[in-house]
Amino acid sequence: xxxxxxGKLNHGDRIEVYRNLHNDTFSIRRNxxxxxxxxxxxxxxxxxxxxxxQPAGREKVRREGKKNVHAFIRGTYLAPSTFPHTTSExxxxxxxxxxxxxxxxDHFTATVTDPETTFTSYQDVHEAKxxxxxxxxxxxxx
Length: 142
Description:
Strand order of the largest sheet: 3-2-1-5-4-9-10-6-7-8
Order of helices and strands: EEEEHEHEEEEE
Shape: globular
Number of helices: 2
Helix content: 10-25%
Structural class: mainly beta
Distance between the termini: 37 Å
Largest sheet: 10 strands, antiparallel
């Protein structure tokens, strides 16, 4: 069993987040080192986010059929204490569900449903103003 880390993040830290398949968490890296694991019941808030997929890593996954760390969410950490009602504000703004599947897509994708027709489409996502990772899902304000 792997050791879960619970390091401290500071408001304004530039971090990278990726899905950790070994312990079913999100791993958070700062300056190239994993400092924290985010359990599915926890939330984290980011701004000025870039969604990055390393093409060589993606192709290796497709070729070998084994997953590796090659896709990241990079952004600036926002401490919940820096403004009131963080969770409800992010919930209202971050409405697009963002996913990544290396076998189906080259990039992160957002699931967009038209409320009038209930037609669901998928669009590539490369950046977002705000992102919340909560309950094991990624939601963005594009």
